[in-house]
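so i finally got all the pieces together for this one. its two components total, 668 residues if u count the protein bits. some of the lines might not be protein, just check the labels. i wanna see the whole assembly predicted at once instead of chain by chain like last time, that was a mess tbh
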Amino acid sequence: MSAILQETSKRADWVLGIDIGGSGSRAALEPVSGGAGGAGGAGAAVGTRHLFEAEPVSISPNGSSALPVIASLIERVRAERPDAALAGVGIGATGLASLVVSPAASLASLSASAGAPVALAIDAVTAHLGALGGSAGAVVAVGTGSIAIGTDFRDVWRRVGGWGHLYDDRGSGAWIGIEGLKAAIQTHDGVTTDAPALLSAAVSRFGPAPTWPSQLYTRDDRGAVLAGFAADVAGLASVGDDVATRIMATAGALVAGTLAAALDPALPARAAGVGGVFASGAAFTAAFAEAFARIAPDATLVEPAGGPLDGAVELARLVAADEVVAAHPPFIWR
Amino acid sequence: MSAILQETSKRADWVLGIDIGGSGSRAALEPVSGGAGGAGGAGAAVGTRHLFEAEPVSISPNGSSALPVIASLIERVRAERPDAALAGVGIGATGLASLVVSPAASLASLSASAGAPVALAIDAVTAHLGALGGSAGAVVAVGTGSIAIGTDFRDVWRRVGGWGHLYDDRGSGAWIGIEGLKAAIQTHDGVTTDAPALLSAAVSRFGPAPTWPSQLYTRDDRGAVLAGFAADVAGLASVGDDVATRIMATAGALVAGTLAAALDPALPARAAGVGGVFASGAAFTAAFAEAFARIAPDATLVEPAGGPLDGAVELARLVAADEVVAAHPPFIWR
C-alpha cells in the first residue's frame, strides 16, 4: 500500500470519514494534511471539512442497509468532488457486527469505488477514535444502546455491553425508557402509586396503557421507540420528579460500571463518555461521575475531543498514513 | 336463551371447555350435570371427561391463530361425538385481547358451529375460574408471562400485569430468563464475577454470548425463548446457586405484589397462584408466600382447585346454566 500511496501522492491528498447511524448518516471530506497524525487530530480540521448528509441505516428482515448507504455516499463524494482524490476512507457503522452478514466481503468493492484503502469499524470504535483522538483508553458510547470499548488499536480489545435492550445496554436510552415504562405501568395497575408523572408522560406519548403492547411488540425498531421515551424521563428528572431522577441516576451509575469494566489493566487509565444520554441532564452526569470515581479511583475521566464522525475521519487518516490499524473483527475490518 | 334450553333439554346435556395455549390446546367434554353449580365444580368431573388435544396457538405478523384452532376443535368434537349435544361452550385463550382483531365478531359463527351459546375469555379469566371454582377473589397466573385478575364476574374486574416481557410481567418465566441473562452477560463482560454458573448455563443453552442477540432479537416468540432459560435459573437455585436463588426469590416477591394489587377492596380477600412457575421450587414459592403475607396480611391464600381447562369447563357450565357471565371486554366476550 505504501508503494501505491507514493505513486499517487500528488493526487491522493484527501481523507473521507463516514458515520452511518440509526438517525442519520454523514460523510466528512478533509485534506489529509489538516490535523493528521494520531492523537489530537480528531476534530481539528473542521474549517476545511466538506460535509455530506444521507439517510439513516434501516433494519429489515433482510438485514441492515448500512453497506448500500455507504456505497452511495462514496459515489456521491466522488461525483461531486472529482478533484479530491482519496488517500484513505474510514467508516463507522451501527449494527455492523450483528446485522451485516459479511462486512469483510464488501471491502474490496468499497475500496475500488473509493480508489483508496478502506477500514470499516463498528460505531463504538469510531466513537473511541473521536473521543480519545486515536490514543489508548476506554470509551463508553450511550445513545439508544450502551457499549464500552477499551483498546490500544493493537493488542487490547475489550468490549463491555452493547448486547441490546432485552438483557443488556444498562443505562442506555432504551434502558431508561424501559424503566420509565415499568414505573408507569405499575402505577397504572395500582401496584405502586409513586409515578403518576411518568404514567402521564407515557400516556401522552403512546396513548392509553392497553395500547402500549401493540405499539411496542410489533415494531422492529422498538429499541429506538423505548429510547424516545427516555427524553420524557430525563425531562421529568430535570424538574425534580423523584422516580425519574432515581432512574436517571441509576442509569449514570450503571454506565460508569460499564466504562470501568472496559479499562483493561494493560491500557492507560484514561476514559471518556460520549453519546446523547450524556446531554440528558445533571441527574445522569453527576451520578456517572460519582460512580466512576468510586469504581475506578485511579482513572482519569477526560472530555471527549470529538464525535463519531471525527473518529471516522481519524480512522481514514490512520489508513492513509498506513499506521497500524489491524483488522480485528468484530471491531474493525480492513 | 332459557326458552331454547328448555326446548332442547333432553338433548343438550353436555358442556365443552376449551383451553387454547402457547404450548398446546385442549378441549374437555363433560356431562352438564357432572359437578355443575359454581364453586367446587371445577375439576370435579374428571372421571366422565372426554379429552381432545390440538396444536398450540401460533402468532404471525397476520395475528393469532386462536380462532381457527377453536373452530376446528369444535368441529372435531361435533364430528366425533354427534350424540353429545352441547348446552354451553366456555373458551379461554392466550393473547385474545391484544392479538385477535375482534373476538366478539367470531362468536356468532362459533356458536352456530357448536349449536350452543359460547363465552370466550382471556386465559387469565379461565385460570381464575379454575383456581377459585367460579367464586370471587384474585388469581395470579404465572407462566411465560404474569397476570393477575381480581373479579366477582359481575361488578369488579381488576387486571394487574400481563403487559409483556419488555416492561412488565414481573416475576414471570420471561422475567426470570431476562434476569438470568443479565447476570450471565455481566459476568461474561467482566462487569461482575458472581454468576459463572448462570453464564455457563446460558452458553449451554444458547451457545457463545456473541450469538445470543441474533437468536433473541429476530424471534417473534422471544418471550417463550426467555422463559425457557428460566428452567435453568430455577435448576441452579434448587442446588443453591446464590444469584439464581436471589432471582427466583425476587420473582416470588414480585408475583405476590401483583396478586395483592388485584385484591380489590370490594372482593372477598381470597387469592391463589397458578401456572408453571409455581412448580419451580422453594426459592420462588417461599418468597411468594412470605411477601404475600406481608403485603396482604388479611387475605387468605388458597390452594387452586383446578387449572385453566377446568376453568373453561366451569365457564361452559355458567353459560349453560344461564348464570350471570356478563360480557366484559377485554376479559370476556359473549
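Residues 135-304 of chain A form a domain with the Nucleotidyltransferase; domain 5 fold (CATH 3.30.420.40).
Confidence is low (pLDDT under 50) at residues 1-10, 35-45 of chain A.
anyway lmk what u think
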